[in-house]
Amino acid sequence: xxxxxxxxxxxxxxALAAGLLVAAFLLAGRRRDGVHEALAMLAGRLxxxxxxxxxxxxxxxxxxxxxxxLIADRLDEAAERTQAQAARIxxxxxxxxNARANIEALGAQVGTLERILGNKQxxxxxxxxxxRELVEDRLPPGGFAWQHVLSNGTRCDCLIRLxxxxxxxxxxSKFPLEAWNALRAxxxxxxxxxxRRFAADxxxxxxxxxxxxxxxxxxxxxxLMFVPSxxxxxxxxxxxxxxxxxxxxxxxxxxxxNTMWAVLTTMRGLMRDLRxxxxxxxxxxxxxxxxxxxxxxxxxxxxxxGHFAQMQQDxxxxxxxxxxxxxxxxxxxxxxxxxxxxxxxARAAE
Length: 350
What we know:
mainly alpha; Trna Endonuclease, Chain: A, domain 1; five-stranded mixed beta sheet; 5% strand
């Protein structure tokens, strides 16, 4: 039986009881002789109806309590789920806040990088900082110099001290990015003009490096032009191979960060070999000195051996003289002479 049907049965039962009572009174008017029996029957039915109503009320109350417990349990579960979802939402909001903060910081860094790349001096410092990190990471402290002044009065960004050959190599970290940015921002119709301008700027920079940083007898026969971008270096080799070949013929090698890493690794091996050769030469000198000292020691041991042999001969001669003296003494002791007789000349000679 549905729970909502029980409260409806009580008014229906009351209406039924009222109808029965009216019917009983009507029957009583017609049949006066059966009044008592009708009243008794009505009273019994009313009592049964009251008992049924009490049972229905108890059942309804029990069902209502059970429904209240179920609703309370469901509300508790819903509250727990809501709290868990709220906690997850707070965690996701925290992650979103951190991501937003990182994005804002990245945007600020991008803006700073754009300002750096827009300023020639700052851009040169940026390339020099990147070059400094690479060089200081791969080469020993004595293998390079920053802002070295050459004999022609030119100050270079970095001088890598290599032995002859090939000799010290100059690395330039300034690259003309204005023409590159103009080439990237140019429209399709303007790209040929922008590409020619970019090639002309790179060619002028190559000419400046070859003129100022390649000095016969002082530096190597080539110099390095450091480009602090893999994309620009790849575009140069892919779109302007003639320009790269011309720079190579003039002794200017265009290197990117990855290429510079490989070049510095090779230079590090060359410096290590040179250092090993120097250490081997020093070891050879020390071994030669040790051999000289060993020869000197051998001569002194030979002289000491000669002195020791002479000493042994002197000791042997001393022992011979001592034995002779002992025999003479024993012979003298065995001679019996008269007390008043003078010694003969032969005995005295002996």
